[in-house]
Amino acid sequence: MHPEQAEDQVALIRSVMERTTRYTGLPGAACLVAGGLAIAAAHLATAFGASFSPRAHPKLLAAIWGATALLAAIQVVVLSILAARKRGDPAWSALTRRVVVATLPGLYVGAALTEFARRSDRIDALPALWCLAYGASLLGLGLYAGWKANVAGLLFLAAGTLALLGVLPGDNLLMAIAFGGIHLLLGFLILGGRSRAVEVRND
Amino acid sequence: MRLKSGTTESLDKVIHERARLAIVSALAAEKELSFSELRAVTGLTDGNLSVQLRTLEVAGYLSIHKSEEGGRKSRTGARLTTAGRRAFAAYLAVLDKVLGRWRQ
Fold it and tell me: Which of B2, B31, B51, B103 is 20 to 30 A off residue A96, Cα-Cα?
């Protein structure tokens, strides 16, 4: 075998292996719906005077954002399953399991911090903490899904950090910007990306 | 199915063919893949993929099985056998040898 041919073979092996372990099961439409839901929820909470303050309808706030998170999660799962079925792929593959496991630590930290903030009367810090926890979770997804999820994760981390430092408002506006805007951006990035198969020519 | 190439290296012809090398590489990265997943990562047509899978199966390098999903749709899955993993490792060793000698 000639060295040039060996290099070609190695490049093919690398390319196929990278593609095999890349997660493409998150539909862009699900991100767009999640972003739309977050913007609607932020608008609704503001309209009803439910802000991230212990004195401003905290139960209503919890109901609005709790329902939004639940709806967003359900539609992501449903649309992902439908997309997998359309491709003829298993909805719960080994790669999907790894992706879910990679995102769980960030989500767990978010849940734990939510309970801590509630008990210590610091719900004003929740939008920033949620951004940080969710950003970490997206970076876990980015290990398999690539740069688009990483960009979204880093933007969430930046938004959360700036809100904690007081540079960004840490209220429903932050929720709309981060959970609305960044999800919309991620959705458009996913929809705009073309799926490229490895070029395999038969010898 | 082993043969001598133009050089002194012993090449496994079954794996050396690029379509089959792509399939084996994918299955080396992921324990089991469905037919549609293999089609997506390799870019092969249904017909070509079926032929190459059959060749690899006959060589004893992978096992193919069908499973029922949701009671209606059957799903074809493929995974490397121990012989397939060994053959892939041996093929990588040959590539490493060729490239190592070239770079010296």
Answer: B51
Which two three-digit tokens encode residue B57? Answer: 């199966």
B32 touches chain A (CB under 8 A): yes
- The secondary structure of chain B, three-state, reads CEEECCCCCEEEHHHHCHHHHHHHHHHHHCCCEEHHHHHHHHCCCHHHHHHHHHHHHHCCCEEEEEEEECCCEEEEEEEECHHHHHHHHHHHHHHHHHHHHHHC
Chain A and chain B share a number of CB contacts under 8 A equal to 97
Rounded to whole angstroms, how far apart are CA atoms B53 and B40?
14
* Contact list, A11 vs chain B (CB under 8 Å): none
- Phi, psi (5° rounding) for residue B77? -120, 150
Please report the residues numbered 90 through 149 in chain A whose beta carbons come closer than 8 angstroms to any beta carbon of chain B: 90, 93-95
B92 contact residues in A (CB cutoff 8 A): 13
ipTM summary value: 0.85
C-alpha A114/C-alpha A129 separation (Å) is 8
Gyration radius of chain A over CA positions = 20
Interface contact B7-A2, CB threshold 8 A? yes
pTM score: 0.80
Banded pLDDT at A24 (limits 50, 70, 90): confident
**For residue range B43-83, what is the model confidence (pLDDT) as tens digits?**
899 999 999 999 999 999 999 988 765 555 677 889 999 99
Q: Which of residues 71-100 of B touch A (CB under 8 A)?
A: 75, 92, 94-95, 98-99
